[in-house]
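hiii, so i know i said id send this last week but things got crazy w the move. better late than never?? heres the sequnce for the chain we talked about at the cafe, plus the structure i predicted for it. fair warning i was half asleep when i ran it
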Amino acid sequence: MTASKKTEKATDAFETLTTVNPEAFKQGYEKMAESVSTFADFQKDTYEAFVASAGAFAKGFEKLASGQTAFVKAAFEDTVANAKAVASAKSPQEAIELNSEFARTAVENNLGQVSKAADLWIETTKETVEPLSARYSEMVEKIQAFRP
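okay and structure toks below
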C-alpha cells in the first residue's frame, strides 16, 4: 500500500470520527438504553407469562386428578354394591339382570368421565397456552417495529 493510500484511509477514518458529534452519540446511547430497558421489561413480562402458564397447567391437572379420584372411588363403591346385590340374588336370572344393568351403567359412566376429562384437558390447554400466546404476539409486534 502506498503512502498516499494510507494517508487517504487515515483521513477517511478521521472524518468518520469527527462526524460523530457528541449530540449524535448521546442520541444513539439514549436509543440503545431505551432498547435495553424495553427488552428487560419484555423479558420480565415473559417470565410472568411462563409462571401464569405453569400455574394454569397445575390447576387443571389438579382438577383432573381430583375428578378422576372421585370417579374411581364411586366406581369402586358401585362395583362392591353390585357384587353384594348379585351375591344376594334369588335366582341366576336375577344375577344376570343385575350384572347387565351394572355393565350398562358402568359403560355410560366411563364414557361420561372420558368426556369430562377431555373437556377439562381442552380447557386446561387453552388456559396454559393463553399467556404464552399473548407474549408471542407481542414479540412479533416488537420485531416488526424494528424492521426498516
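btw The chain has three helices and no strands. thought thatd interest u
miss u guys!!
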